[in-house]
């Protein structure tokens, strides 16, 4: 694997989009969206903004977004609207990253985690579309990852929210996609129970920012660019989407009481107490079952292949990976103040 050493850089404050006409492209997952409704909203916003005719690109199983996003950029799109779930957003961002175009979000999935962490509207089509045409560009971090698989091949990807080994990756691998499409996040319940029954531990070595190598056993490792999950669960309380760093958590439960400690820490302390000054003074110290670290780059080597996920999608098994933060590497369209 290569050894990128990008460090955080100073970034300008968000600035309003120029008045000059642009061209939008919509990259949409046909399974996730009401295309007719989107086209009506886009036609209205496009006319009011005085922009050119919007371009339309459909994702597929073979091309979840990268190929059509490149087509959109080649066709001159200045804003690429990702209409779909977290997987569509991740795939489009992987291509828009580093270009002159901005990414706009039309949340249409189960988690919509990037939109949640940016505090964007989740269920207002017109508002999301208007933001794409008239909003402000905000620079956020994007993570780059190289995964070495059990056949010794290396694949390169981007992610915006989290990469995970252990519980969440196994949960996703056990989730029925058809059931997920029908009932949303409730489809994960059975998969979570299955994953919790798995007694296998991650055995790995990791290093942060080129530092010393540490050996650890853990049930789960999450590398987070953001920290908020669905149901307002704050898993990574110090993960900030534009600070040039990951927050990484390792879950190391040693039985039922350890799981209780984890749930209290994540659901009660992170989710409730941390939100007020008085509550923060009431918080306990870190617990042994839940270890947090921070860094710009992490290298992980596993003793045996493990399932890995990026932004809620499985990416097979990994024997090692290297992830780094590209600070301010992606422009995302957000509402003007």
UniProtKB/TrEMBL annotation:
GO terms for cellular component: plasma membrane. Its cofactor is Mg(2+). The keyword Secreted does not apply. Residues 59-149 form the DAGKc domain. GO terms for molecular function: ATP binding; kinase activity. InterPro entries: ATP-NAD_kinase_N, Diacylglycerol_kinase_cat_dom, Lipid_Phosphate_FormReg, NAD/diacylglycerol_kinase_sf, YegS/DAGK_C. It comes from the Bacteria. This is Diacylglycerol kinase. Keywords: ATP-binding, Kinase, Lipid biosynthesis, Lipid metabolism, Nucleotide-binding, Phospholipid biosynthesis, Phospholipid metabolism, Transferase.
